[in-house]
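[recover] target loaded
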């Protein structure tokens, strides 16, 4: 982890993620103070935080740790682009043969062999839990609890900046506002 945290671009991304997206979702917690402590720990050469280990079990970690913040930010009109980039990057990693250990590896391997269609990944309820409420024309879950792909495509054509549309259609980098 220390090599990753030493990368100026990655550190700038993480700082912005914490300040602009995570901290507002966790008010009144002292997220900035916690982040300073974590950065110091990550930079410590005597502590070995392996990225491969951190990447393991993403199908369990993302729904517990990231999606509640992502959904909160979407519903509150706060920034969420960086959180979306994390989900996108995880899916891109899981589409490769070098994917880390994960309880969903069998499904993810089949998904990757079938073309790694991000829209199909959205239907894996274990990785992508249902949204509690639709917001601002974003793609929504249907009554069968699967993502409404028609709405995603429609949002994409309208140029909507909702969580599902640009996270997954297409799976390419999208510049953040102001960049």
């Amino acid at each position: 982890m220390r090599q990753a945290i030493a990368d100026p671009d990655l550190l700038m991304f993480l700082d912005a993620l914490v300040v602009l997206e995570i901290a507002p979702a966790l008010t009144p917690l002292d997220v900035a103070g916690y982040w300073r402590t974590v950065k110091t720990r990550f930079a410590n050469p005597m502590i070995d935080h392996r990225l491969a280990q951190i990447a393991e079990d993403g199908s369990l970690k993302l729904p517990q740790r990231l999606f509640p913040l992502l959904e909160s930010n979407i519903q509150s009109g706060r920034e969420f682009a960086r959180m979306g980039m994390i989900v996108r990057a995880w899916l891109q990693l899981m589409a490769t043969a070098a994917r880390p250990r994960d309880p969903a590896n069998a499904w993810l391997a089949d998904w990757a062999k079938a073309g790694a269609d991000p829209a199909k990944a959205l239907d894996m309820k274990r990785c992508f839990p249902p949204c509690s409420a639709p917001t601002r024309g974003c793609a929504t879950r249907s009554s069968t609890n699967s993502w409404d792909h028609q709405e995603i495509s429609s949002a994409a054509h309208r140029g909507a900046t909702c969580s599902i549309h640009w996270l997954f259609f297409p799976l390419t980098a999208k510049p953040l506002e102001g960049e």
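[recover] notes: The chain is about 55% helix and 0% strand.
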